[in-house]
Amino acid sequence: PNQLSDNMKKHGGFIPGVRPGPRTAQHIDGIMTRITLPGSIALAMVAIFPFFVTRQFNVAPSFAQFFGGTGLLIVVGVALDTLQQLESQLMTRHYEGFMKRGKIQGRRG
Question: pTM here?
């Protein structure tokens, strides 16, 4: 957080409502703590999910491990990346359509 705060200060960046310097570092540290703690708890739950599935539902451990843990993280990551790419493509097409209908035309138009 301190290095990030210093870099922001050097390049003229700031966080609205937070004074540059040590207060910015404290603010960033607080945000990182609030994000990291729930994320690590969720990651731990995903990691031990296959163990509980094999215990509760009496399924083969290989089946539970295939659908849990790392496989689940990969599937969710790919799905989020695909949605982000789809959204950016839709935004690009939206802006292209907006630009084609403009009243101001260049030399070629």
Answer: 0.50
